[in-house]
Amino acid sequence: MVGSILSPILHPGREQGLTPTGWDGHRAAQFAGNFAVIALVAPVAEELTFRGVGFGLIAPYGRWLAIVAVGVAFGLAHGLVEALPILVFFGIALAWVRSRTGSVFPGMAVHAGWNAVALLSAVHWFHAG
Questions:
Q1: Long-range contact pairs involving 74-78 (C-beta distance under 8 Å, separation at least 24)
Q2: What is the pTM of this model?
Q3: Average pLDDT of 80-99?
């Protein structure tokens, strides 16, 4: 919801520059490698870092402090000004899931799915034609 409200205003997808603007069949191997990193490797690494180690270190000082601090750190670590509100909200949501489940695995799945859908939609695979 936050993303759909802020995306028309901030255009965060353009800021990062990692997603192609359309499908180019001659670059399928590069797309597959990029997809593996963005939709699999990055979510695992980021969830272990932020919702694993980060949450674990801050949680003894308060559950909500850990949720918010980890969410803000997650957003800032991406280094994207226009996408910062969306990333912080997403980071807080994933930290909340971590606090409720006691595990980083649900967040990994959500994060991987989010990144996969974002990348696929960026190349217009969900659009007819």
A1: 74/46, 74/50, 77/46, 77/50, 78/16
A2: 0.78
A3: 95
